[in-house]
Structures are given as C-alpha cells and as structure tokens.
Design goal:
Distance between the termini: 114 Å
Radius of gyration: 31 Å
Mean pLDDT: 78
Order of helices and strands: HHEEEEEEEHEEEHEHEEHEH
Structural class: alpha+beta
Shape: globular
Number of helices: 7
Number of strands: 14
Number of domains: 2
Length: about 300
C-alpha cells in the first residue's frame, strides 16, 4: 500500500514542477512581448539586377558624354618576350605607364592596374596607374633585378616597389602639413636621417635632401607594441617584429614611388636602400611623355648620379 502512496506523491511533484515551468515560460513570453525588439540591421545585399542597372548607368554616363574608357586590373604590359618555362633576365617586359614606357626583365613579378578616360577628341580626361614590381638587393651581380637563380638569394633583401600616377603633378602639401603637426625627435648624421614623430608613427627623412632641396624622401614606421624608436633607428636594431615600415618619395613630378612592407630592421639603413633603388628604377624609363620632360629628368639623374 505504501508503494502506491509514494507513486502518487512523485506524480504530484512532477505535475507541480511542470506547472511552475509553464508559468515561468508564459511570464517570459509576456515580458518579451512588452519590450520593443530591435533587430540587427545587416547591410543590404544588391541583387544581380541592381548590379546590372548600376553598371549600365555608369556606362551611359560615359556614353552620353562621348567619353571612352580603357583599363584593366592588370598592368598595361607586353610580356610576349617572356616565353618558355624558365624566365630570363635578358628578356624584357615593356609597360606603358601614364605616358611613360618602362622596360625591365621577365624575372620581375609585376602586378597593377590602369584606367584611362578619353574625351571625344581623344585627349585624356583622367588617368590612374599603379604598378607593383619586385626587386632584390644584395645580389652578387649588383643588379636589383632577380637573375632567376634561387642559389643567389641567400644574403639578399627583397622589396616590392609601387609606382603610382594620375598624370598630374604631385603635391608636397600633405607631407608638409604632417611635418608641421609632428615633433622632431633627433638627427642621426651617420645614417643621414632626421626623425619626426606624430602619435604612434615615426618618419625618418633623408637629412641632406630634406635640408637642401626640400625633397621629402622618407621611411614611415609604426610604433605599436611599445616599440622603442631609439632602438628602431639604431645600427644594433633590437625590437623584433614590433614595428612595420614603408617608404615613399616623388620619383618624377607626376610619379610617386613607394617601397612596401620593409622589415623594421632595415630602417637605420634606409639611406643606402634609397640610393640603390632610386638610381636603378630611373634606368627602366626608356620613353617619356614629352621630349622636354625626358631631357629634364635625365639631367637631374646625371646631376645626382654623374656615373650613370
């Protein structure tokens, strides 16, 4: 008999527990209904039709004004000489770049893009060019262009050079404004550097060019992870991977040269890197927008590098 009594009590407890749970659920549901629900707003995805319509509007914008467009997400390069499985540094890539013509070996890795808009009379309305090319310093042959031989890369430094142009004269105003708002930290005569800091960024300029010609040739490094700029710009560099750097300068009036992803251990040696890259990059220009421009550029090169 007592077994039946125990079963009845257990059954009553289970029913009471379920009723309490149901009441709690109803209470929570009622509470949520009384609150204003704010759904998470996701970025609206465009349909295929909307993409087509947008592209057609852009096309009509040019067409209605008689503007023609030429461009690609690759460099405007002729690589027909680069045939065969093995690349040779004796065969050349020919690249058109903002009115210039460049020539460099097939062993160079290249990427880039260009976009040109032409008026109805075939004059250029606007243009933009970007060219990334690989270079190697420290090879036994003294060239910055890879020979194609992996055995020669043991003690070398590899960089990516980026050339950018929109065909217009580049302004110094942005960098001059940055200098005005930055703090001068120190000068390192033996490395030919003058250093400024603003926030978490430090910029070292080639000292003699900065002072005599107002030429802003610089390497820019971040100072995250408590990087010490005094150790950064030291011949005994010792900050590991705490800083990342890149460099830039005006190669011509209308072309900016950038050096991407420089290891911070090379910051102290920036002047030597600049000298080596600058004179060699000039040498790949084989044609210029006008004969006058070409003469001026070559005069400047021979003044700075009389042995070229």
């Amino acid at each position: 008999m007592w077994q039946y009594i125990i079963l009845v009590l257990i059954f009553a407890i289970v029913i009471n527990f379920n009723n309490q749970k149901n009441n709690e659920i109803q209470s929570l549901q009622q509470s949520s209904q009384n609150k204003t629900f704010q759904p998470y707003s996701k970025a609206k995805k465009r349909s295929l039709w909307e993409i087509i319509v947008s592209a057609n509007k852009a096309k009509n914008y040019y067409k209605d004004r008689g503007i023609t467009v030429k461009g690609s997400n690759k460099p405007d390069s002729d690589t027909s000489a680069c045939v065969g499985i093995t690349k040779s540094d004796k065969d050349m890539i020919i690249t058109k770049f903002a009115g210039y013509v460049l020539e460099y070996p097939c062993t160079v890795n290249q990427r880039g893009e260009y976009h040109i808009e032409y008026n109805p009379d075939n004059t250029i309305l606007s243009q933009r060019y970007r060219l990334n090319i690989s270079v190697v310093l420290g090879q036994e042959n003294g060239s910055i262009w890879w020979s194609g031989n992996y055995d020669d890369l043991t003690n070398t430094q590899g960089f990516i050079i980026q050339l950018i142009s929109n065909g217009k004269k580049r302004s110094n105003m942005p960098i001059e404004d940055w200098i005005k708002s930055a703090n001068k930290i120190k000068e390192i005569d033996e490395a030919n550097l003058i250093i400024f800091r603003k926030g978490n960024y430090v910029r070292a300029f080639i000292k003699d060019l900065f002072e005599s010609k107002k030429a802003y040739v610089s390497i820019r490094c971040d100072l995250t992870q408590d990087a010490d700029l005094y150790k950064l710009f030291s011949p005994f560099h010792d900050i590991g991977n705490k800083s990342r750097c890149s460099a830039s300068w005006r190669l011509t009036d209308d072309i900016t040269l950038g050096v991407l992803r420089i290891q911070s251990k090379y910051a102290y040696q920036f002047y030597k890197i600049y000298e080596e890259l600058n004179k060699n990059i000039y040498s790949i220009f084989i044609e210029y927008p006008t004969q006058t421009t070409g003469k001026i550029i070559w005069q400047l090169i021979h003044l700075h590098y009389p042995n070229n």
